Amino acid sequence: MTGFGVRGGAPRPGVRWSLVVPVKHLGRAKTRLALAAGGLREDLALAIACDTVEAALACPGVEAVFAVTEDPRAGAELTGLGAVVVGGEPGTGLNSALAHGAAAARRRRPGAGVCALSADLPALRPDELGRVLAAAARHGRSFLPDAPGVGTTLLAAAPGHPFTPAFEGASRARHRDGGAHEIALPDVASVRRDVDTPEDLCDAVGLGVGPRTRELWETVAGSCLRSQGAP
């Protein structure tokens, strides 16, 4: 058996979640989108993060969103959306930033589960996220793989269970091998489609992105399509 499954797979009644969303300093964010976005790369990275956080906050199962960032511009925008901005991250990588945010979340919302969510899900749908979180409530620790099936876009630890992130690279295998239950649900593409490359962005646009990302899309679309070899 993987993870700390609830007997019989029964959901935990009333579980609500603190989402921990790591947002890089905009000067270092989404560098692989530079070819498509050019001088708008930082604006696009911020738009993607804001659309992700706004959709997450609209999910009924979400108690709060804790955005871990040291970028003042991102912090101000995300605070305006209703996220709790957590600074003072250790500066030793994504997983330590997530652990730092999770500790803050558990101090502020001790009765909630903790869930790491990628900051680059511009097509995120609150109802699809809600279905994933409901599935996560059946297990002590669980995760959702990304669209290519190599990485992870969501890692959940129910109340009373350890939060042990192992993101970056082939994190799907690491989370699975570490005992977390892999969530397998149909029709949750918006929660799996993270964006790192121009091709990813085109795929997300096909699903339907949030308003900030959509506003910038028309500007970068030509470059994005050229990077895919379109005529």
UniProtKB/TrEMBL annotation:
Coiled coil: none annotated. It catalyses: phosphoenolpyruvate + GTP + H(+) = enolpyruvoyl-2-diphospho-5'-guanosine + diphosphate. Its EC number is 2.7.7.105. Residues 52-154 form the MobA-like NTP transferase domain. Gene3D superfamilies: Spore Coat Polysaccharide Biosynthesis Protein SpsA, Chain A. GO terms for molecular function: phospholactate guanylyltransferase activity. Keywords: GTP-binding, Nucleotide-binding, Nucleotidyltransferase, Transferase. Pathway: Cofactor biosynthesis; coenzyme F420 biosynthesis. It is an enzyme of class 2 (transferase). It comes from the Bacteria. PANTHER family: 2-PHOSPHO-L-LACTATE GUANYLYLTRANSFERASE. This is Phosphoenolpyruvate guanylyltransferase.
